């Protein structure tokens, strides 16, 4: 398959290098376009007010991989890869392997997930892959999951494009209980803002906090990964809350229907 790989940890991140080399070794045609530095938690930001610069990268990637470092965001990288750097569209866009989980409502902030979402918006099957630890360096279970998934018959593009958000426990493969389909949970944080003063006497803040996953609802991705399962969650970009339409119509708003005078 032809694969476009990106991330938000940067072009030299161990996770993306391991994933790209693993998939190239498995016989896939791999192109990597990643930010030239860490761009974590940038969401779906685009670079609109300054130029994007790209530079070819060789080591530590396999010689068969075309790798590019981009000055922009993860979403920039996918747009640039799809529109300019690839001769033809890929079969899959894969973002990761990220250092740290992208669980529950974290997907709204994640540059990793946003890169994959950019692929979906372009009509390409996409996957965001995260290792649920910011310090672990064993990416083999996560890379093996992606490699094995691409070997499945359904990965060849049958049906409408899909985005899968995948989170992998930071455990040896023998300790992982399996793979489950799970909805997003809601992550709560004990957020704090640490006030400091710079050398010129001006106040600035560092945002900090820890996840309070003990509040997570059962049967979600947050709980499943705590139970040592790889979690797979299909995502889409339509944020419309259809279940709230009836409530909002109580405010006197008619439901729009193209060509109908009732909504005017």
Q: Count the strands?
A: 11
CATH architecture: 3-Layer(aba) Sandwich
Terminal residue distance: 49 Å
Number of helices: 6
- Assembly annotation: single chain
Q: What class would the helix/strand composition place it in?
A: alpha/beta
The proportion of residues forming helix, as a percent range, comes to 10-25%
Radius of gyration: 20 Å
Q: Residue ranges: pLDDT <50 for 5 or more in a row?
A: none
CATH class: Alpha Beta
CATH topology: Stationary-phase Survival Protein Sure Homolog, Chain: A
Tell me the strand percentage band.
15-25%
According to CATH, the homologous superfamily is Survival protein SurE-like phosphatase/nucleotidase
Give a short account of the largest sheet: 9 strands, mixed
Total separate domains: 1
Mean pLDDT: 93
| Order of strands across the main sheet | 3-4-2-1-5-6-7-11-8
- The ordered H/E elements are EHEEEHEHEHEEEEHEH
> What is the overall silhouette?
globular
